[in-house]
Amino acid sequence: MIVDIANPGQMVVAAEIDLPHEVKRIRFDGELAYVAMILAGVHVLDFSDPVNPVSLGGTGLGCYTYGVDLARGFAIVAGGECGVHVVDVTTPAGVPQGVNVVTPGRASGLAVSGSLALVADSSAGLTLVDISDLTRPTLISSLDTPGSGRDVQSVGSLACVIDDYNLHMVDVSNPALPAFLGSARTAGSGWSAAIDGQLAWVAVALAGLQAFDISDPAAPQPVGIIDLPGEAFDVVLADGYTWVANLTDGLQVVDIADPAAPRLVGSSWLPGLPIETFVLGDRVLVADYDDGVRIVPAQCEGGVPIYLASLAAERTGRTAAVTWSLRSAAGTAGFSVWRETPTSARRRLGDAVFVGAGSWSFLDVAPPDGPADYWLQESGADGGAWRGPAHLAAAPLPATARLFQNEPNPFNPETVIRFELPQAGQARLAVHDPRGALVAVLLDADLPAGASQATWDGVDAAGRDAPSGMYLVRLETAAGVRVVKVTLAR
User: Fold this and answer.
1) Positive or negative, the Cα torsion across 41, 46, 50, 52?
2) CATH architecture, domain defined by 2-296
3) Pairwise CA distance, residues 333 & 160, whole Å
4) Cis peptide before 410, with omega less than 30 degrees from 0?
5) Which CATH architecture has domain 402-488?
6) Fold match between domain 307-392 and domain 402-488
7) pLDDT in tens, 112-158
8) Cα–Cα distance list, 278 to 34, 151, 192, 281 (Å)
9) How far apart are CA 148 and CA 125, in angstroms?
10) What's the predicted TM-score (pTM) here?
């Protein structure tokens, strides 16, 4: 089925196409979908008109078919006890059968990574097949895992393997000698995974959706979980959300902006047994174990999320611009902008509340010189869900010392003087009258490289109010002297 997800909180079935046997996996190449059917090999569907998909035919493989991926005009198919098949799909209407290589156990799922086919094997764990020559695939090696291999995802030179109750990270940089790096226990029986940078999201049967931090492959760590109704079977990522195919309870949409606290924002009961999903713009294709493929828009129970399409932060001189775009903002009273740094807690910037979909921007007039993260928070009596972060890199160090014009200027009763140092060292900031006589020393100390500032309250070294007029602020460092004029207006 195909589901319209233009509004992720309200999904409805947009179209269906019946297929002759049970569907297991789907992969796309442009407008063509390659469907692995358990008892009927590979079937090709044309989605050039997404609400009126057309069957182009298919081929049986003579054995069970559990997974499919694509490589250079060929479909690489996990064929159960028959191993891995390579099928020529350059002529979709015919889909002639290609060659196969027998694997040690039952090929249950696979992922293509360059010239390698990573195969989840229910008996042998992980099997690696050389597909550099697609006319002669060759078995390279296997690595047994404690459970039955069910799914595998490519993560650069690593493989993320899901087997029964475990997530394994495996180094496949040397395909002849794959090596375990680290493992983590899932909260239940894991079926499939989706990779989002340094996170792996696992569909865990009766336990729901679980997030793992895989930034250290030697020690993957669970970081969050959400219990979902029914039996979570497949997960796919799109625009900061996961779409979970649930065997008994349809399709669930989970907001994963905060991996430690994933949040269910939409769900839709669908007929049959949804087994896999694939997001196509504002629609999602749902493979049904019994009833073929459905195309669904979004009629979900529950609230409608802010559908964040982009969020970024960039320095613009001495300020920082935070920009974002939302496809939908229904169901919320708006959102606010927050900032946090490695040394300071998250805090709100200003009182503005931004309401509505579209493109927005916010200017942080005093960003830190070090790195920072910017967040959006949904408005509500008790706060709301967080979106982000957008990372702001540390400001580059200047090539030489810089002294900026004071703010405000003219001033009364005080003003701020900002400056930057190219390297750590001694710095002296002092105020002089127009004849050069010393009025006050604002700062004389060893300072770190980067930005610093001092405040002058219009008082001289004896604690007396300085008269109105023009003064010179002088910065002395090992790199030389810098001077700016300031005006005190009483």
Assistant:
1) negative
2) 7 Propeller (2.130)
3) 40
4) yes
5) Sandwich (2.60)
6) yes
7) 999 999 999 888 789 999 999 888 889 999 999 888 889 999 999 99
8) 12, 16, 13, 10
9) 6
10) 0.59
